[in-house]
Amino acid sequence: MARRYDSRTTIFSPEGRLYQIEYAMEAISHAGTVLGVLAKDGIVLAAEKKVTGKLLDLSGVKDGGYGGSGEKIFLLNSNVIGGVAGITADANSLVNYARTAAQKHLFLYNEDIPVELLAQRLCDLKQGYTQYGGLRPFGVSLLYAGYDPHYKFQLYHSDPSGNYSGWKATCIGANNGTAQSLLKQEYKDDISIDDAIDLVLRVMSKTMDSTTLGSEKLEFATLTLDPTTKTPKARIYRPAEVDALLQKQGLGKKEEDAEMKTS
Amino acid sequence: MDVSFALTGKGYVLIAADTTAAHSIIKVKSDEDKIKELSSHLLMAYSGEPGTSSILLYTAFAEYVERNIRLYQIRNLYPLRPSSAASWVRRSLADSLRSRKPYSVNLLLGGYDTTTYTPHLYWMDHLGTLVEVPFAAHGYGSYFSLSLLDRYHDPEAPLEEGLATLRRCIAEVTKRLVVAQPKYKVKIVDKDGVREVEL
């Protein structure tokens, strides 16, 4: 009897709660952390990869293909990067939906989809699963880092219930409470992209389980404006670039480790 | 027999259209406003393709566009930018062209992009051709006015100079065209939005 209000997404419990939605959000808080920081001249996204191991074949990931370098950061449109936390299979489906929605907008209006509109499209879909019969909602939270001419650089977050909100800096996934409070302390308005990169990596290194950061555990992306064309430029870092960046920031593996590898 | 002109200047777009509503060979109205205000910073002049369409048909298309542009604004809290609106209208017209009964309507879209602070003018014909232009005209008036616009148009001209060029065009059409239209309505769109101006 205790499970009476758990089994269907569309049934309220007597206290007025939708348990399946809350369980979906719980699933997300065990997923790898995704962190986003809005700067005045760009946005930074970083994510912690959970599926790692010596035997995992990463040869396809090495070149960081068109869509991104792995499991958590994806290019949704030329002006929006998405970071996902939650059930990877659900996330893939949502990423696919987002890309289609963005292309539909391009077809109809001959412009890149405004960031908030893309977030709304996905939230409409996610909200649908809290009302119409299906087994479960999407167990995915997303961060959208994007640019459009209306509101310039923007960072949005959406959760399984279909709620979305705009942020200056935010975090989803495991340890998001710790990361949020760190961000709250350290974030300043008018932060530059370089300071934002520094902030993201510092917070990331504090929230992640492992002591040293490396490309096998970390995904990284930035969105800036191209200085000549003034169009948004999404850059999802390749594993080698992530390592180079960490080395530059003094957070990477020690030099001797690298030497050991090559010898 | 509709005549419409438009030109850009320093931070504005001017659009002029005659005010005659004709049904076949009969003039049914002489004070028809054929420039729709699609949003706070977007104007659209519409006219029929001579001989093929009635005012009823192309005002129907103009109203369809007007309501859909408004719907986008209500849903998304900000209006479409001129370039996106023009692309959407072109798409609608192109879809209509490939239907059983196409709207034979020619359009001039003038808007002020509030995100980049620039005026834009688009010329579109009933076949769905869309071009961004510095000045434009539709109907028989175009045969008399395009050469004048080519000679006198200046993209950096202040409003008074733009209006003077427009007056030249209208004077020429009135003088030379057999089926000349007596009255014109002129509207402007700039950073302050759309409004009517006196010639």
Can you characterise this structure?
- The complex is a heterodimer of chains A (263) and B (199).
- Chain A is of the alpha+beta class.
- Chain A has one domain: Aminohydrolase, N-terminal nucleophile (Ntn) domain (Glutamine Phosphoribosylpyrophosphate, subunit 1, domain 1, 4-Layer Sandwich).
- Chain A has seven helices and ten strands.
- In chain A, the strands form two sheets. A five-stranded antiparallel β-sheet of chain A has the order 8-1-2-9-10.
- Chain A is globular.
- The model of chain A has no long low-confidence stretch (mean pLDDT 87).
- With 199 residues, chain B is α+β, with helices and mostly antiparallel strands.
- Chain B has one domain (3-197): Glutamine Phosphoribosylpyrophosphate, subunit 1, domain 1 (4-Layer Sandwich).
- Chain B is built from four helices and twelve strands, in the order ββββββααββββααββ.
- Chain B has helices at residues 55-76, 82-97, 141-152, 159-176; strands at 4-9, 12-18, 21-23, 26-29, 35-39, 42-48, 105-113, 118-124, 130-132, 135-138, 184-190, 193-197.
- Chain B has a five-stranded antiparallel β-sheet with strand order 10-1-2-11-12, covered by helices on one side.
- In chain B, a hairpin with a 2-residue loop joins strand 3 and strand 4 (26-29).
- In chain B, helix 3 (141-152) packs antiparallel against helix 4 (159-176).
- Chain B is globular, with a radius of gyration of 16 Å.
- The model of chain B has no long low-confidence stretch (mean pLDDT 94).
- At the A-B interface, helix 2 of A face helix 2 of B.
- Chain B: It comes from Antrodiella citrinella.
- Chain B: It is found in: Cytoplasm; Nucleus.
- Chain B: This is Proteasome subunit beta.
Sum this structure up briefly.
Chain A has 263 residues and is an alpha+beta fold. Chain A has helices at 19-28, 88-109, 115-128, 176-186, 193-207, 239-249, 255-262; strands at residues 34-39, 42-48, 73-77, 80-86, 140-148, 152-158, 164-166, 169-172, 218-225, 232-236. Chain A has a single domain (17-49, 68-251), classed as Aminohydrolase, N-terminal nucleophile (Ntn) domain (Glutamine Phosphoribosylpyrophosphate, subunit 1, domain 1, 4-Layer Sandwich), CATH 3.60.20.10.
